[in-house]
Specification:
Layout lengths: L5 H4 L5 H4 L8 E4 L2 E10 L3 E8 L5 H19 L2 E3 L23
Antiparallel strand pairs: 1-2, 2-3, 2-4
């Protein structure tokens, strides 16, 4: 059985699908401008974190530029996007297993 690389095992999502749970996914505001951050998978099991200024202070324009960049980037760079499927966990919540009681029954 062939071994899958991370790029082959990651389901490709359109930017519209990705933004359904959070319209500002991958975006953050640094000063007055919006930036995008995402991860790409490269050949040989390598990953690279990409951070790019979108050169706009308007969030609606930033979303359009994000969607365009996420569509074009893999084709132009010969890589695969690593996009999270599903909604992000709420801040302040823990994903650990429930605590067990230390008292013997």
């Amino acid at each position: 059985m062939p071994i899958e690389t991370p790029a082959e095992s990651t389901r490709a999502l359109s930017p519209a699908e990705q933004a359904q749970g959070d319209p500002d996914h991958h975006l953050w505001r640094n000063g007055r401008l919006w930036w995008i951050a995402f991860t790409v998978h490269l050949p040989g099991w390598q990953k690279e974190r990409v951070r790019v200024s979108l050169h706009t202070a308007d969030v609606a324009e930033a979303r359009r530029r994000r969607d365009d960049l996420l569509r074009r980037y893999p084709e132009e760079r010969g890589c695969a996007l690593s996009l999270r499927i599903g909604a992000r966990a709420a801040r302040g919540t823990r994903r650990s297993a429930p605590m067990r009681s230390s008292v013997a029954a």
